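Is this the right way to post structure tokens for a design question? Let me know if I should format differently. Anyway, here goes:
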């Protein structure tokens, strides 16, 4: 076995620094320099002692290694930033992604599936931007807070000051307003001053005046040279205003700067001297604007926020998207919200949590209006701010209004019920809606009027557009009206509804279970097919009622879409009717050919078991041979059931299909032993052959037979299930005598009833090692608590593999140090490795040591100093 020695030694050296005595830190860092340099460049979590020593000692090699580290956590990056290293400060401050933010997924929530669709991808991108900017701002602030302006290395060519003076990007300039470098404060004021809120501007000007009067005078001259600087009232009194400016604390500074981001949402506004020098700056400004758009809605500052917004709006009006973004807060003043709606109606309806109904009815239709008005309408009704009767009388088109009605909101169902009552129980008006002969683009009230009278009204302004991909514009209208109609109207309509509209009523959540039962009773097979089409939303009682109809088409839909039990799947695959007679109901090719479907592991388990127990020739001909079972027991049990239901001819035909090449592919024969048993049974005759086959099946499940077959390697066979319990005591004894193969161990460990003893026995087998890393089941066992880190350290070999498993588990577990097993392992290691010599020996032995981790600790302790150093 080949291990990555440098990586193992580096990780072990970090453990030595963490678990060893602090008084030994300097000695360990000196004697383990090579592995620690590797750890500085690669480890995701670095001990603060090591980082401080690397920076304080100005070790060029250590700093270079630390600068190559691409995987620290954001917290570690902040810790490194506070050390005040000019060399690392440049990299931390100017990184395209903040130090460590590109690997947040490794330490945060599990990685989500790839978003599907343009809108989902755009939302994912905005989320990524907000996370990156949220980490960038405090990180850059920490770099500047720790910087010593008297240190010339910050200002040398290629240093932080020179590099930041070359940029005009918001994200990189905002932290400099509170930094120690006057030239950077002046540069940020010249670039951002036109958009800075007045308190922030004066606070930064005060800092500049106090740190460097010449830089302040240069800024004042630059501001006076540009008529569009935006603070004309300060001309001639900059010194007085800066000297008397009130300090702004960090929280208020961060909140106020969000207004700068909102201004930069509108890229149409010219910025005078403050033009972008390259596309990268524009991208960074867009990123900060996206961050500000979402952070502004969550501001909880104690300062009077809207007084500042009004003052800034009077000084230099917010425009376009920036003005619309103010409405994200529910407490946005009405006059500002009205101005935003007049300028950006679509954005306001999309962003504002509350809008008046008049804004919805006043909006004219275009291709995108439905995407923003529909959710705004639903929110208003759900929160009780809109009168449902007024919505049905004023908002159009009705096809989209009905699609967005929250029927559970107060008064909504009652208002729709009133409209449905006007349609009555006569099929005529309902057919007018179904066949789109009603005025679908008017209001809901106009739609009902036109359905009753047959006359179309005069053109009515359309509030928002129909969803382009809707196949039938009247379907949502019909669903909602029928669901709210009275029992008399529903009873009268059920017999004459088209099949498509039966499907609409059988969709989950449209009508009650009682109404679906009435539809099933009165429409029979058509209703059953409609209900089975949406079987995932049916109750267990409804599923059972559909199964009792014994209709092949319904069974096919249920098998594909319903959450069936194993017994129900066996019933479908065997063709058993409601009276318990096998093969009484035809089994379709779709049910038999289920193997190509993508299903969950639990459903796959049930489908395999159902096919094995079906005893149906069609199902077994389609059954993938690789799933027939690794041992002869499941294979013979399948054939016994087939013989019981269909006789020897079915078994003979299946055996011929399994041993004959099909479609140009070579045959996948049953194992030779199984074939021999079947041929002897067929030769013995119908009655005697079935008895022989049954005895063979019983013999095959004996523990010694099962274990012998498990040892026969056959990588082409899959075994997701095994009928009945396994003989675990015998399996444990067999594992102790000679380890099973890796795939067999994985199969046994996947069994729900696998005992912890077998997990611990498997740790001593070669199966614990896969592709130079611990097998997946090791991490799963640690996470589930079936095995502990003590089990891994005491049983798993080689030691490097156990070390990786333990350290990976420690990194991924939030409460690792709180577990008794982890504390016991640390106590044992510290007790044995009680001097630096023992730690150094352990680190160097780790990559190539063939024994367990605890054995390595014992040998390292024995090889260390004979005079143990007393721990202080």
């Amino acid at each position: 076995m080949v291990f990555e020695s440098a990586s193992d030694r580096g990780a072990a050296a970090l453990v030595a620094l963490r678990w060893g005595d602090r008084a030994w830190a300097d000695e360990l860092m000196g004697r383990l320099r090579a592995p620690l340099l590797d750890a500085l460049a690669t480890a995701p979590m670095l001990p603060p002692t090591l980082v401080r020593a690397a920076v304080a000692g100005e070790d060029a090699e250590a700093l270079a290694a630390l600068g190559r580290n691409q995987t620290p956590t954001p917290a570690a990056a902040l810790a490194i930033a506070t050390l005040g290293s000019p060399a690392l400060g440049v990299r931390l401050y100017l990184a395209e992604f903040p130090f460590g933010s590109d690997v947040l997924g490794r330490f945060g929530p599990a990685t989500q599936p790839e978003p599907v669709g343009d809108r989902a991808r755009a939302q994912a991108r905005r989320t990524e931007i907000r996370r990156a900017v949220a980490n960038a701002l405090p990180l850059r602030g920490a770099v500047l807070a720790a910087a010593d302006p008297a240190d010339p290395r910050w200002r040398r060519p290629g240093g932080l000051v020179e590099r930041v003076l070359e940029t005009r990007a918001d994200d990189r300039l905002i932290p400099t307003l509170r930094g120690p470098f006057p030239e950077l404060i002046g540069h940020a004021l010249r670039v951002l001053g036109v958009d800075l809120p007045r308190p922030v501007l004066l606070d930064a000007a005060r800092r500049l005046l106090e740190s460097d009067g010449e830089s302040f005078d240069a800024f004042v001259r630059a501001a006076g040279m540009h008529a569009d600087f935006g603070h004309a009232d300060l001309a001639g009194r900059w010194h007085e205003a800066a000297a008397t400016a009130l300090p702004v604390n960090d929280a208020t500074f961060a909140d106020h700067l969000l207004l700068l981001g909102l201004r930069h949402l509108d890229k149409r506004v010219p910025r005078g001297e403050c033009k972008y020098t390259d596309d990268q700056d524009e991208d960074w400004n867009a990123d900060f604007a996206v961050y500000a758009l979402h952070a502004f809605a969550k501001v909880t500052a104690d300062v009077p926020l809207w007084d500042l917004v009004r003052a800034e709006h009077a000084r230099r009006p917010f425009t376009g998207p920036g003005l619309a973004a103010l409405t994200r807060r529910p407490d946005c003043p009405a006059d500002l919200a009205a101005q935003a709606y007049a300028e950006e109606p679509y954005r306001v309806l999309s962003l504002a949590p509350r809008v008046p109904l008049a804004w919805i009815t006043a909006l004219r239709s275009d291709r995108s209006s439905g995407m923003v008005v529909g959710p705004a309408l639903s929110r208003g009704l759900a929160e009780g701010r809109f009168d449902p009767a007024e919505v049905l009388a004023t908002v159009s088109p009705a096809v989209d209004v009905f699609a967005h009605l929250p029927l559970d909101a107060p008064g909504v169902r009652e208002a729709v019920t009133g409209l449905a009552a006007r349609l009555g129980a006569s099929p005529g008006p309902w057919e007018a809606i179904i066949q789109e002969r009603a005025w679908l683009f008017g209001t809901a009230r106009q739609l009902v009027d036109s359905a009753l009278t047959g006359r179309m009204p005069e053109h009515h302004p359309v509030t928002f557009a129909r969803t382009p991909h809707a196949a039938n514009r009247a379907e949502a209208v019909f669903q909602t009206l029928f669901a709210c109609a009275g029992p008399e109207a529903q009873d009268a309509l059920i017999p004459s509804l088209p099949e498509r509209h039966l499907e609409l009523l059988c969709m989950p959540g449209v009508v009650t279970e009682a109404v679906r039962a009435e539809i099933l009773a009165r429409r029979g097979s058509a209703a059953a097919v409609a209900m089975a089409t949406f079987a995932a939303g049916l109750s267990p009682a409804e599923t059972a009622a559909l199964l009792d109809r014994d209709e092949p088409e319904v069974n096919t839909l249920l098998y594909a879409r319903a959450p069936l039990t194993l017994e129900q799947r066996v019933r479908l695959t065997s063709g058993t009717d409601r009276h318990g007679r096998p093969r009484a109901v035809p089994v379709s090719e779709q049910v038999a050919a289920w193997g190509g479907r993508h299903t969950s592991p639990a459903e796959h388990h049930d489908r395999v078991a159902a096919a094995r127990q079906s005893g149906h020739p069609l199902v077994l001909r389609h059954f993938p041979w690789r799933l027939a079972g690794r041992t002869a027991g499941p294979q013979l049990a399948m054939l016994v059931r087939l013989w019981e239901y269909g006789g020897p001819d079915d078994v003979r035909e299946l055996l011929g299909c399994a041993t004959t090449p099909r479609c140009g592919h070579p045959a996948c024969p049953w194992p030779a032993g199984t074939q021999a048993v079947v041929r002897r049974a067929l030769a013995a005759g119908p009655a005697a052959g079935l008895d022989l086959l049954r005895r063979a099946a019983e013999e095959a499940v004996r523990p010694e037979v099962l274990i012998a077959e498990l040892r026969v390697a056959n990588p082409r066979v899959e075994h997701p299930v095994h009928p009945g319990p396994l003989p675990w005591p015998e399996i444990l004894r067999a594992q102790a005598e000679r380890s099973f193969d890796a795939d067999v161990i994985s199969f046994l460990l996947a069994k729900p009833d696998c005992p912890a003893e077998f997990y611990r026995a498997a740790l001593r087998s070669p199966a614990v090692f896969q592709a130079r890393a611990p097998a997946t089941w090791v991490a799963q066992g640690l996470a589930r608590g079936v095995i502990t880190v003590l089990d891994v350290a005491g049983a798993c070999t080689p030691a490097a593999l156990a070390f990786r498993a333990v350290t990976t588990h420690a990194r991924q577990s939030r409460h690792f140090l709180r577990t008794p097993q982890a504390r016991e392992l640390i106590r044992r290691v510290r007790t044995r490795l009680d001097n630096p010599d023992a730690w150094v020996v352990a680190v160097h032995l780790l990559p190539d040591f063939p024994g367990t981790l605890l054995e390595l600790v014992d040998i390292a302790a024995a090889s260390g100093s004979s005079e143990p150093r007393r721990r202080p």
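Format looks fine. Someone answered above. Worth noting: The chain has a mean pLDDT of 80. The chain is about 60% helix and 0% strand.
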